[in-house]
Design goal:
Elements: H1 6-15, H2 21-29, E1 36-40, H3 46-51, E2 57-62, H4 65-68, E3 79-83, H5 90-96, E4 105-109, H6 117-127, E5 134-140, H7 149-160, H8 167-173, E6 195-204, H9 206-214, H10 217-224, H11 232-242, E7 250-262
Parallel strand pairs: 1-2, 1-4, 2-3, 4-5
Antiparallel strand pairs: 5-7, 6-7
């Protein structure tokens, strides 16, 4: 994922949806211990903040210094934020994250599709507790607003963006169903996902919603090609449909797709 400018990182932090507490309670319930969690690709620290309430310590890492600058480090005394190189080596992960077998949970929120997954999985296995260390990765899907005209307007923009989806973004569009995930199921009767039933939320005005759509990778790709996927007339229509001249605050929901698994006794996942 490309590095963000200061203004882009600020906008990113302001409009990302909030993950529900029940998502983290579910994930933590699958961990035999809750001593240390590693939030990889932490961005502005949203997931790390929730993990801090459930684990003794959290290490939150990202390659983007601009995003990390908006993380609430001063409010989270048991979270250590760390800037990592884009290509994280095994010595790096032991130096910046944890020694072998010390991590109870690794999380990746809305970022796994940008990773070199085989390399990342190897690093996760190197620090996860054996047996039973858990890796949880999730993405959130297309927003749902009112089940009516606003959602129909978004659908139009979404369909227009289809030619500009990168292979990485397509993984999100496909709800991580095709992402390789070589870990054991967290319970014998389950598989490794995707697990549904959770949703991120954000209270938004019409303008917030437009900014959220415009922050997406497909929109940014089209814009670089000189194409406007959300033209002024469509924005005006959205604001009229939104209510209160677009200033009404609505709760926007983003369904979540979760992949979760654990390392086995010997660290080899079947």
């Amino acid at each position: 994922m490309a590095e963000l400018s200061g203004q882009q990182a600020q906008n990113y932090a302001a409009i990302r949806p909030t993950y529900p507490p029940e998502l983290f309670r579910y994930i933590a319930s699958k961990c035999p211990f809750r001593r240390l969690a590693w939030d990889a690709g932490t961005g502005c620290g949203q997931a790390a903040a929730s993990l801090a309430a459930l684990f003794d310590s959290v290490v939150a890492t990202d390659i983007n210094p601009e995003k990390l600058s908006y993380a609430p480090a001063h409010l989270l005394p048991n979270v250590r934020f760390a800037l990592t190189p884009p290509a994280l080596s095994l010595p790096d992960v032991h130096r910046l994250v944890a020694p072998p077998g010390a991590v109870d949970l690794v999380t990746v929120a809305q970022a796994l599709h940008w990773f070199d997954r085989p390399a990342f999985y190897a690093l996760a296995r190197a620090v996860l507790r054996r047996p039973g260390g858990v890796l949880a990765a999730w993405c959130y899907l297309s927003p749902v607003v009112d089940g009516g005209e606003v959602d129909e307007i978004y659908r139009q923009v979404f369909e227009a963006s289809a030619p500009y989806w990168s292979p990485e973004s397509l993984m999100v569009k496909e709800e991580y169903t095709a992402v390789e995930f070589p870990f054991e199921a967290v319970e014998a009767e389950q598989e490794t996902g995707p697990v549904g039933g959770f949703a991120a939320e954000r209270e938004m005005t019409a303008r917030d919603f437009v900014e959220y759509v415009r922050s997406g990778s497909p929109y940014q790709t089209a814009r670089k090609k000189g194409l406007e996927l959300f033209p002024a007339e469509l924005v005006a229509k959205l604001e009229r449909s939104w209510g209160g001249e677009g200033k009404q605050v609505k709760k926007v929901k983003f369904p979540i797709s979760l992949r979760i698994g654990r390392v086995g006794e010997d660290g080899v996942d079947h």
